[in-house]
Amino acid sequence: MSATTPQKPRLTTSAMIASIASEGQRTRSAPFGHALIELGKQRSDVVGMTADLGKYTDLHLFAKAYPERFYQMGMAEQVLMGAAAGMAREGAMPFVTTYAVFATRRAYDFIHQSIAEEHLNVKIACALPGLTSGYGPSHQATEDLALMRAMPGMTVIDPCDALEIEQAVPAMAAHQGPVYMRLLRGNVPLVLDEYGYQFEIGKARMLRDGPDVLIISSGIMTMRALEVAGALDKDQIGAAVLHVPTIKPLDISTIVREASRPGRLVVVAENHTVIGGLGEAVALALLQAGVSPAFRHIALPDAFLDAGALPTLHDRYGISTSVMTGRLKDWLG
Amino acid sequence: MTTPPPGHNASLAERAYRIRRNALLMGEVQGQGYIAQALDIADVLAVSYFHAMTYRPEDPEWEGRDRFMLSNGHYAIALYAALIEAGIIPQDELETYGSDDSRLPMSGMAAYTPGMEMSGGSLGLGLALTVGRCLGLKRKGSDSFVYTLFSDGELDEGSVWEAIQSAAHWKLDNLIAIVDINNQQADGPSSDVMAFEPLVEKMQAFGWFTQRVDGNDIDAVRAAFDAARAYPGACPRIIIADTLMGKGVPFLEQREKNHFIRVEPHEWQLALQALDAGRTF
């Protein structure tokens, strides 16, 4: 090694909470907490409930604003979900928060049998979705979308940025029935404001067009897809990005319409295991519609993932902007 | 009660008899079922629906009602029997029990049946739901009670203990739980499957107003319900009801492995006759 080799930036390793914002990126603080306070002004039926993770889901802001409407249920996710169902049956609209792993894995039956089966008006917002924690499999909700998609009557939302979370909160409240939303908390990247974006449950949005490749993505992978598209521009590769924040119900008509346009490679990118998420949902929708473009899938492996710093892990598992860009270039030859 | 159900002057013993009779008639429709539990809990249900609870039979969702949560959904046959007796479900619907498109499925579910407050079946749910019901009622300033029935087998479930702790934390004095100690669960005697005693001491240690009664002694059950409602402390209440599987039908009381029993076609008539023979009113 020569003395001029630039020193590698020090990475924080395997912290539970890590920012997904890249350096210098515009962010907004605690969009969920602020949006919920705003919603609380308009609707007195909104209550907040959590299982010892108020601070880490930005619900503490709501608790501070409306202490009498905040329910700290302790580190007990089963009673959290059951009690939310009971509250909803008595006319409240609980916004329930915890980490995605605990809601979807530990409390699954309680969501299934007491919330979804009665189609109750409970809104579940869960932090650390997919690979957004370097803490290891205990906190990496790599299969949360598959689990929640499989639940009858559940609406599933994977928002991209702070703006979308702000817009999703009132949309969730206006929707009658249970909703699961992947939550980004803390300083959350702000991306979609540059696209004149408006979130609507069940609607996919074309964020940019391009003739060579169509990236269909949700959540933070849309942010990455936009960065990838920008990088591909420099190589005169035109990438379109279709953002699909609602995983269920899926906007099949928009997906089929865009994937039907000839001459484009279709790449689904998701922050989720290859099994049971957006990729499989899109593939099924296309096959059933008789559309069969060249198709690739960027997703996390079907494995228990490593602990480590998020940038390391995103590189390792292929969901960082640089690795994605390289793979797309390879695929496009 | 705001609106007395039909025949409201009948004694509680007579109510319990008719609940048992309804349950046996439903059991006969299917030839099998959780009939021994229905017979053991009939006295508790008689006191609940004909002494303790406020409700309107013609309006099962009336806001001012007391709620009855059936956590052990397989006891639905017993609750249907009580709801029929209370005039919430018509008597002639009894013959549809467990049949296709019936409003009376074998496992109790909220969407199917008037007066069924929750979907049970997955044991260990009810008390968690009840915590939310009680919090929700308090939020509305309601003075309704939530009665929750669960089984001794459910004490195996960790979620039940989460809810027991939570109810005490939230000082849910509008919660009256009844746990049916018939000491029988799917794989055998509950105390053998997973030792749950000493239950009184456990519940007291968790901060609940705790009573233990013979769940088949109607006067004792009635007194326990009265005491549970009248207790002035800011804490949840529980009635630990020791019951006898098959109560009221001696040959079923003596039958072993009676968690899910099969009764031969000719035995239903014998069971009804045995029940009649034991009438005390």
TrEMBL record, chain A:
UniProt keyword annotation of DNA-binding present: no
Cofactor(s) listed in the protein's UniProt record: thiamine diphosphate
Entry keywords, A to Z: Thiamine pyrophosphate
Domain Transketolase-like pyrimidine-binding: 26-190
Annotated InterPro entries: PDH/Transketolase, THDP-binding, Transketo_C/PFOR_II, Transketolase-like_Pyr-bd, Transketolase_C
Keyword Nucleotidyltransferase: no
Annotated Pfam families: Transket_pyr, Transketolase_C
Stored CDD domains: TPP_PYR_DXS_TK_like
Protein family per UniProt: Belongs to the transketolase family.
Protein name per UniProt: Transketolase subunit B
Source organism phylogeny: Bacteria, Pseudomonadati, Pseudomonadota, Alphaproteobacteria, Rhodospirillales
Automatic annotation (TrEMBL), chain B:
Domain Transketolase N-terminal: 30-259
Gene3D superfamilies, alphabetized: 3.40.50.970
UniProt keyword terms in alphabetical order: Thiamine pyrophosphate
Cofactor: thiamine diphosphate
InterPro entries the UniProt entry points to: THDP-binding (IPR029061), Transketolase_N (IPR005474)
Family the entry assigns: Belongs to the transketolase family.
Protein name, entry field: Transketolase subunit A
Native source organism of the sequence: Insolitispirillum peregrinum
